[in-house]
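DOMAIN: structural biology
WANTED: fold as tokens
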Amino acid sequence: MTDFNGYCIEDLSPGMEATFAKVISDADIQSFSVVSGDTNPVHLDDAYAAKTRFGGRIAHGMLSASLISAVIGTRLPGPGAIYMSQSLRFRAPVKPGDLVSARVVVSAMDEKRRRVTLTCEAHVGDVLVIDGEAMVMVPSKADAA
């Protein structure tokens, strides 16, 4: 890790992994709705959401996916990493009060281009709620010198 607490390309290797977990609260859902502008009633209205196939309110998919971003930006590779792309598959809903655990694993590296491919997933308990892949650009030790 460098002095900014992020990994440089030279410090990474396939198989490295990191996690971040958070309980998704009603306040998180409300705040995300305001920030994103996504006011879909399946996230905000109990009566409406009760009539859906989910039987109640669910968190925004991108709110849950943002925990993957938290891992990438703060843990692996960490500060200095820049998103290049992200693919996501939403497998199951996240409900208010669920503990979501996001995990990223280094799956491939292109040291010359300073690109790292990460396998990404999020779980609620044993249930896979999101999976996908991210590509990030990471600094080199030469950048930090």
